[in-house]
Please model this.
Amino acid sequence: MTAPDSNGTPMVRFENVTKSYGSFVVLDGLDLEFGAGEKVAIIGPSGSGKTTVLRMLMTLERINDGIIWLDGEPLTHMERDGQLVPANAAHLRRQRGKIGMVFQHFNLFPHMNAVQNCMEAPVTVLRMPKAEARARACELLEMVGLGDKFNHYPGQLSGGQQQRVAIARALAMRPKVMLFDEVTSALDPELIGEVLNVIRKLGSELDLTMLMVTHQMGFAKEFADRVCFFHSGKICEQGPPEQIFGAPENERTKQFLSAVLEAT
Amino acid sequence: MAQRLLLVSTIMAFLAGLAIASFAGFREFLPGLLQGALITVEITVAGAVLALVCAVIAALAKLYGPAPVRWLAITYIELFRGTSALVQLFWMFFVLPHFGVRLEPLLVAILALGLNIGAYGAEVVRGAIIAVPRGQWEATIALNMSRAAALRRVILPQAFVAMIPPWGNLLIELLKSTSLVSLITIADLTFRAQQMNQTTFRTVEIFIIVLLLYLAISMIITVGMRALEAKAAGAVARGRAH
Model:
């Protein structure tokens, strides 16, 4: 289960994590590790729990059982008197700062322009001086190819541009782990490429652990170090993309891939 | 909307012209009634400020407070929404002195009406906060913002826009309910009108002027709120996705 290129402590470790809504079990005793700097694509049919993995890691969802570890420390729990107890708000805020997330529907702040969106958290959370936060925001917007859109509001930008602002906004907090939750699913087909290009660029230029839930099989194949196939709240099969896409062993993986590839 | 305003303004101007042309009493009554209208405006403005403060505090308490605070907010909202404003005025003016609390009439008027409208306003504020898409909250969590910072910087500015039209309603409601304060000895517009009516019996003239003055004040509120809405909506509409 250990990540192929991780040495020592993994960046993220799910240990027997269970999540359920009422009697519906979304994730069932999940054990999963992600190494530092690893790029992992999470694929699977809808309702398989793949998005929930990212949402739990971002602490948007509480877990019902198990522990999530982040950067060698517990995330969902904290140590008190030598025992692990559920994390309090202060612990969550300290740990959560290491993670950034990009959403399917962008979730940009509509009343702020592109630069303000990227400055908001560094200023209010990290107490960064405004001039410094602005400089950093502009630098990141340049990096995602939006150097000419600093003062544009989200409503004045295309979906692809909005998603690139959202990526810059997440990077402004200097995360170690970036989560991408179906970030191209809400985009018109002709805009998908520009967002994937930015993600490619992050992968090659920054030292980030990148986890992405995606339906873009071609991109997953080319970009990821490892592909995890989820089905019914469990990892059905995982391995390097050549293996998963080239010679899947599990019957469900084969069915899923042939269904997906047929559709495209 | 601009056309409707124009229409109402025209009707008002016509009525005003009619009043001036028809009634020699216009000059006689207007100064006294304007003094009353000033009191009415004072109570409306002070009451509106109090109502807004109460509404925001009660809404946040009901949404995010710990259980005792939440119950306090619910009690306030239900108590002041569920009983008549007149009874609330009478309670503060006639009943509280029996318990040793004696307040100035003007203070009673502002407190009672402000708390009353604030209780309605609390639900308006709460509804507007809830209506902000959940993704906005999730983005603030992903950016590691505290709940207070998220509310202040992200949620409330967006909720604010949705609150403006219902607040326009509430402010007009507040203006109209100020006429109740004439029953606790305050010389507001309605009080002055009744007084003049009792001494002169020129009922038609007096109450046409009173009607026009109330209408004029509520039109000012409407126009002001529209301007505020246009400004606030402009700021967010630029940003609204899709």
